[in-house]
């Protein structure tokens, strides 16, 4: 399993998330970058196309996708797993739910816990090795917290998954950061995350805030900021807080997820070829942006860049669908980077592919349920298949 530190070489280093800490942070969760807390390009960002809203009734969280055991000789379904780090923007929640309803898709929102803490009460958070109230992303206004709670509730009612993106988003260059943290530090982050989740009314000193209906016990996985961590330090903390999966790793190509020695399912993002570009790219929007425009990233040829990302997604899908059927793990943010190039690319891809035969666009939760439904021998055989679409 590789982590971001393995992306070496002149071009590949530009892809690594360690550059994130050198870019100016946003002022809050409704800023374009969402979770990464990085400045959007200076060029104006026109709104993405408005998708048609489905009139389908709400979906029970446990019934959007029903896993079944494979029959002898039957091929596995092709899963596409879309996730968004930070998940704090009301406008982006609204947009992506509309896309999902139209596309028969559900996704995972990895919530940054401090988005439940109003800026007036920011000292309730103390990141490991940092002073109270400090973070690399912005705190929202207290008045904006109820809208986020409503977004999370609506998403949960309709079958989306909520996970954790931890809290302060401390990456390399921001002092004591995730790549240096110990198990005790990650435990502190998770303890505070769940504390904000359960006690947001008390923290914000507002007993009239709406009820957060999404059970804390339903949060089963996450992604570390900038993909920075030491697995031997992170995994024990995940076990302590009853989390069952992590999506912070990077692997060459597309392969089936496996449980590690801590009994945590690992869903690494893929390092794959990008048509028209040398070397490879991690299957995440920010990495596409750096690959296409340099480090620090900037506004580029957004139409051509968007088409290149769509071509990358299509290549990934065809390689997996015709090959080992490994899930596509597509990491994203609530952003408008590069004049919405990556929003447009992902929108086009999921609307085109999520309804295809044997193809299911589901949260991590549902892929885990499917894998745990299978005969262990069958699942092991899938996990032992060679990776496809490798660099």
Average predicted confidence as pLDDT:
88
* Strand portion: 5-15%
Distance between the termini: 15 Å
Bulk shape: globular
Order of helices and strands: HEHEHEHEHEEEEEEHHEHEHH
Main β-sheet description: 5 strands, parallel
Describe the structure.
The protein has one domain: TIM Barrel. The two termini are 15 Å apart. It has helices at 10-15, 90-103, 145-157, 183-204, 231-240, 285-293, 302-322, 337-353, 364-373, 376-383; strands spanning 78-86, 108-111, 161-164, 221-222, 245-246, 250-252, 258-259, 265-266, 269-273, 280-282, 328-333, 359-361. Strands 1, 2, 3, 11 and 12 form a five-stranded parallel sheet that branches. 33% of the residues lie in helices and 12% in strands. The chain has 391 residues and is of the alpha/beta class. It is globular and about 55 Å long.
